[in-house]
Specification:
three-stranded antiparallel sheet, about 10% strand
């Protein structure tokens, strides 16, 4: 199984994340996290979400990142380090709400590793003819290449671009 490590350091964190190429075990974890988060947001009031993009991060991105992360290594958070030099410990799982409070720079590095190892998980938001966001592609419920949603005609499959990734 291919892996990539992400090391992030700032004033609050000094952490290494080990991201893996997904197996079905990670896919099930991702689906479970997504379902749980959808349930949490369904019960939340509409005013508690800042935007559609917050929903997207919590239901689409967050489950992918957490599911594909096999290990978290905290540096400089141990009790033997002087308190004024200690960093915040980072542990998984985090909730969707906690995920939103992580530094954007950490999430950007994490995102690159997850999508690099799991390009089939990369969502894309498409707008329908009325300008509304349609169902994300790249998920297990995609209709591309099937007769559903295409007026009974199969769409031709396009060859995939070759993905180059680095890993260990």
């Amino acid at each position: 199984m291919r892996t990539e490590t992400v090391h992030y350091v700032d004033d609050d964190y000094d952490v290494t994340l080990v991201v893996v190429q997904a197996t079905m075990r990670e896919a099930v974890k991702r689906a479970t996290l997504r379902s749980t988060e959808e349930g949490v947001l369904k019960n939340a009031s509409a005013s508690s979400l800042d935007s559609y993009y917050e929903w997207w991060v919590r239901v689409i991105d967050y489950p992918c990142f957490v599911a594909a992360t096999k290990e978290v290594i905290n540096h400089a958070s141990d009790d033997d380090i002087p308190e004024d030099l200690r960093k915040k410990p980072f542990a998984l799982p985090v909730s969707g709400e906690e995920f939103l409070d992580l530094p954007e720079a950490l999430v950007a590095l994490w995102e690159r590793a997850v999508w690099s190892l799991n390009p089939h998980w990369i969502p894309s938001m498409e707008l329908d003819e009325k300008g509304k966001a349609s169902e994300p592609r790249g998920n297990s419920h995609s209709t591309k290449g099937s007769s559903r949603g295409s007026g009974g005609k199969k769409e031709p499959r396009r060859p995939k671009k070759k993905q180059t990734t680095r890993g260990t």
